[in-house]
Amino acid sequence: MIDRILARDSDAVQEVVTPLSKPAERMHNVAERLRTGRLAEEYFLAHSQAIASVAPTLILDHRALARGYDFGIRERDGIAIEVKGLKQKRGGIAFTDREWPEAKVRRGDFWLVVVGNIDTNPIARLIPDPATSLNAECRYQTTIAASWRAMVAVA
Fold it and tell me: Which end of the chain has fewer CB atoms surrounding its CB within 10 Å, N or C?
């Protein structure tokens, strides 16, 4: 394949190089998804009583712990809450390979909160045991990423 690319074979360039030259569009999508997710989490934190009958003071923030869910509940150790956001009232949501297995193991103790219409008039839906009630499709993908490293000293 490399020899074909170096020989300027247009089919090889189209197959390999062209897809790699389109990161800007993907980055915008990632940034927008992060923004939508953050807004949904903030909405949940402010409205947890109405959404899940849990006082905001009882919500434990686990977002930085990489546990496969965003929040827990003080005094109810087994409950895991994952929050997803949608720009519209309906649409697709993505689970990481840490979140979906966690939902499958915890079953009724895993609550999914989907906050839709996030920019204008948010509305939330609580889905207990999403592994049973949602039909999620697993898709495997290979990703090529550049990684840059530099040596530094602070003293």
Answer: C
Which pLDDT score is estimated for 84?
Answer: 97
Residues sharing a CB contact under 8 Å with residue 16, sequence separation 6 or more, in sequence order: 1, 5
| pLDDT tens for each residue of 91-111 | 999 999 999 999 999 999 999
Structure tokens at 18: 């062209």
DSSP-derived letter for residue 86 is: -
Q: Which two tokens stand for residue 105?
A: 């193991």
How far is the C-alpha of 80 from the C-alpha of 76, rounded, in Å? 9
Contacts of 114 (CB under 8 A, 6+ apart): 40, 83, 84, 85, 86, 93, 124, 125, 127
Q: In angstroms, rounded to a whole number, what is the distance separating the alpha carbons of residues 126 and 124?
A: 7
